[in-house]
Design goal:
By secondary structure, this protein is an all-alpha fold. The chain is built from five helices and no strands. The mean pLDDT is 87.
Length: 136
């Protein structure tokens, strides 16, 4: 069980890092669509790992799952929009760099990140309580 908790802690740490990266994106001097799509893909992968692990281990709450779904939806929609904008930029009908910056701001300011941080904190506490029960 200790290795499972370590995995949970690893997933939580990675998601916390991903949230910090997303919040820094709008301040990057050279943000391009490829970087934004990569960050979105990594974030969605981390969310997926959290969802699978917490469900398999019976951890988490309805709030956690709802937050994961909401963040997943927001990030997926922005990823699709960025891909569409890339196609439009190829046709020279849109300023891609300005649009990418705006999308990064949308992600960084979305309330799902704050809700996810709260849910991760609850999950950490739940994992620590489980670890204490096992140790006792």
């Amino acid at each position: 069980m200790t290795s499972q908790l370590y995995t949970l802690q690893g997933i939580i740490l990675q998601l916390e890092r991903s949230i910090r990266v997303v919040r820094r994106l709008p301040r990057l001097p050279r943000l391009d669509s490829k970087l934004l799509r990569g960050v979105i893909a990594d974030f969605l992968k981390d969310l997926s790992h959290l969802a699978v692990f917490s469900q398999r281990e019976g951890l988490g709450s309805e709030h956690l799952y709802n937050t994961i779904m909401r963040c997943s939806r927001v990030f997926t929609e922005v990823g699709r929009a960025v891909s569409t904008l890339e196609a439009l930029a190829e046709l020279q009908k849109v300023d891609l760099s300005t649009a990418v910056k705006k999308f990064a701001e949308v992600l960084a300011e979305d309330s799902c990140l704050e809700d996810l941080e709260k849910a991760l904190l609850e999950l950490k506490k739940q994992g620590l309580n489980l670890q204490r029960k096992i140790s006792a």
